Amino acid sequence: MKKILNQRETIIFDMLNGFIKAERDHIAVSKEHDRVLYRKEKQEGKVGIVLGGGSGHEPLFFGLLGKNLADAVAVGNVFAAPTPQTVLAAIHEANQGSGVICLFGNYAGDVLNFDLAKEMADSDGIAVVNVAISDDIASAPKEYGADRRGIAGDLFVIKEVAAAAAKGYSLERCQRIAEECNQRTYSIGVGIKPGTNPLNGKPSFTLNADEIEFGLGIHGEPGIEKMPIFSAEELVKRMYSLFDEEITVYSEKEVIVCVNGLGSTTLMELYIITNEFIDLLEDNEFLVLDTVVGNFCTTQEMAGFSLTVQILTEEIKELYQMEAMSPHYFHKESY
Fold first, then answer.
1. Is 226 helix (H, G, I), strand (E, B) or coil?
2. CA-to-CA distance for 63 and 26, rounded, in angstroms?
3. Which residues participate in catalysis according to the annotation?
4. Which of 266, 81, 298 is nearest to 196 (CA)?
5. Per the omega criterion (within 30 degrees of 0), is the bond before 61 cis?
6. Is residue 142 part of a domain?
7. Are residues 228 and 115 in the same domain?
8. Number of folded domains in the chain?
9. Has residue 2 been placed in a domain?
C-alpha cells in the first residue's frame, strides 16, 4: 500500500505538527507532553473534557478539539492507547477547576492507561471520571454490554457530554449523562476492504474478492461472520435487524443517526446507505431528529461503513442541539 510519509518513526510527530500549524489560532501542543494537544480558550470553573486513543482513526480524536467539544486530547501511537503519562498531561491541560471527565473507546489498553492516569491525577488533587464508550453491538451480546467496543458512537457521546460541561454542569452530573448517553448509543460496522498499518504496511484483515466482514471492529477485529457482498438495501436490512433487538425496548422514539465511512468509502455509497437506513427507522416509527454522514472514525484507507443510532431523552436532545465547532466536526441547530 502506497502512503505519502516521511520516516515511519516520525509519523505521529509529523501529523500533529501539521495539525497544529493548520489550527494554530485555536489549538496548541502541551509543553508537558508532545503527544497532548489542547484548546487555547479556557472556561474557568468548567468540567474539563479529555479524549484519547490510538492514531490512525482520524479525525478521532484530536479533530474534536473545539468550542463546546474537547479541551484536550491524549494521542497514542498507531492503533495503540496513549500512555498513562500522556493522559495525565492531557488531564492537566483540561483541568479548569471543577474536575475532568475522560472519554475513550472501550479497549483494554485504553481502559488500563486511563485508569492509571486517573490514579496519578487523584494524587495531584484533580478529580477525574473515566467513561469507556461501548457502542459496538456486534462485539458482545446485550447481556455483556460493558464488554462492547467503542466505535463511531463515540461522536455522539463526546458531543453531548462536552455540551453538559459547557453548560456548567457538575462532574457528577456530567458522569451520569455520559453513562446514559453511552447506554443509549448503538453501532455496527461492515468492512469490504482492509486498511493498512502505516508502520508496517500490513492489512488489518483479509477478505476474498466477493466477501464482506459483517460486524468488524475499527482495528480489523473479526466480526460476526464473513459473507458474500450484496446490495445496500439487503445489507442495511441485516444490520437493522440487530439494532431492532436493542432499540425497540425504549418508549422514546426520537433518534439521531450517524453513517460513518471507515476511510475510503465514497459519499455516493454513504448516502445510498443513508437512504436505506432512514427508511427502515421511519418505517418502524422512529423519528430521526438529525443524521450526520461522513468520515468520523476511520481506519486509514479501510473501505466500509458503520451505522450508529442513539435514542434521545429530552435532556440528551437539548445537549445534542447545542452549537459545537471543531476542525473536523460542527453542529448548528439550524442552517
1. strand
2. 12
3. 57, 219
4. 298
5. yes
6. yes
7. no
8. 2
9. no
Three-state SS string across 234-294, please?
Answer: HHHHHHHHHHHHHHCCCCCCEEEEEEEECECCCHHHHHHHHHHHHHHHHHCCCEEEEEEEE
- Interval 127-172: pLDDT, tens: 999 999 999 999 999 999 999 999 999 999 999 999 999 999 999 9
* CATH of residue 173: 3.40.50.10440
Sheet holding 36-39, edge to edge: 27-29, 36-39, 72-78, 48-55, 100-105, 128-133
At which of 183, 217, 234 does a domain end?
A: 183
Do 25 and 149 lie in one domain? The reply is yes
Residue in 214, 213, 114, 133 with CA at minimum distance from that of residue 181? 133
Residues 92-121: tens digit of each pLDDT: 999 999 999 999 999 999 999 999 999 999
Using alpha carbons, select from 221, 210, 261, 205 the residue that is nearest to residue 60: 261
| Cβ(61)–Cβ(52) below 8 Å | yes
How many CA within 13 A on the CB side of residue 109?
11
Q: Which domain holds residue 15?
A: 8-183
Shared domain check, 161 and 40: yes
CA distance 270 to 296: 12
CATH of the domain at 318: 3.30.1180.20
Q: Are 91 and 72 spatial neighbours (Cβ–Cβ below 8 Å)?
A: yes
Single-letter amino acid, residue 287:
L
Please tell me whether residues 169 and 204 are part of one structural domain. Answer: no
Residue 85: all three cell numbers together: 503519562
